[in-house]
Amino acid sequence: MTLTRFAKFSWGVVAWTILVILWGALVRATGSGAGCGNHWPTCNGEIIHRPEAVETFIELTHRATSGIALILVLVLLIWAFRAYPKGHIVRKGAVGTAAFILIEALLGAGLVLLELVGDNDSVHRAIAMAVHLLNTFLLLGIMTLTAWWASGGRRITFRGKGLWPLWFLLGLAGVAVIGMTGAITALGDTLFPPESLADGMAQKSDPNAHFLVQLRIVHPLVAILVGFLTLVLVRNLYGKTDKPLTRRLALSLAGLVLVQWAAGFINVILLAPVWMQLLHLFLADLVWITYVLLAADVLSVEA
């Protein structure tokens, strides 16, 4: 790998974006999404607003960090067009990154303007949260690929790769579904927090419980299924390659899956405290990034 100045900047943008994602989760977990009312881009109708509540401070900070991320991506886009020739894969990655971060901003604005924040427990909010998480993953994925290509990674091809494209397509789609169901589960934990583990089990078994409570069981089931699929993929891949980087990425992915399983179990036992929700999401981001890098490495064109 070759870490040019542009490559280092690209990886820095990835790291900053993860921080923005985690702060966004903090906004949801603390119910601070309505900290600026239903105003966007202003806060409570003011361009420069002095926060008087913790919720407003958290929401304003998220908007500020998101704005910085938007600026960083703009710099990334301009730099890519100045540093790489027409048609280069890094240029395409930078364009994709810019497109997805604009969609991300619009989705965030929509949550506020449509009042799908705070105590809103509607189906529309659940769907919006799942779509928002999916776009976040897609943004993080293309951003990671841009940094990978800028570091010397080759473009991706499906030709001559056997069944590996299908394996990775299923795996990445599965991780995306885990994230989407996780977003819905986290929303349910925030709006309907159980008082104890027994209370949580009773809530899920109640036929009259809110749909967000009834859907809690879906996330761990999907996580277990996709996790096993990933471990099988890693096992098969590890035995068929002697490339050091591929093996390191494969082992890292397997290790992250196991750690994430443990984190999910602890999250349930501790009744999903905010800090554990953030750690769980951080691990999910690492799983996604590692999956994307492993796919890019295995499916890359030969030198």
Average pLDDT, all residues:
91
Order of helices and strands: HHHHHHHHHH
The backbone outline, from C-alpha atoms, is: globular
Largest sheet: none
Q: What is the count of β-strands?
A: 0
Which characteristics define this entry?
303 residues; mainly alpha; 2 domains; 10 helices
Structure notes:
The chain is built from 10 helices and no strands. With 303 residues, the chain is an all-alpha fold.
Summary of the model, kept short:
With 303 residues, the chain is mainly α. It is 73% helix and 0% strand. It is globular.
What order do the helices and strands come in, and which of them pair?
Elements: H1 5-29, H2 54-83, H3 89-113, H4 123-150, H5 164-191, H6 197-205, H7 211-214, H8 218-238, H9 244-269, H10 274-298
Helix pairs in contact: 1-2, 1-4, 1-10, 2-3, 3-4, 4-5, 4-10, 5-8, 5-10, 8-9, 9-10
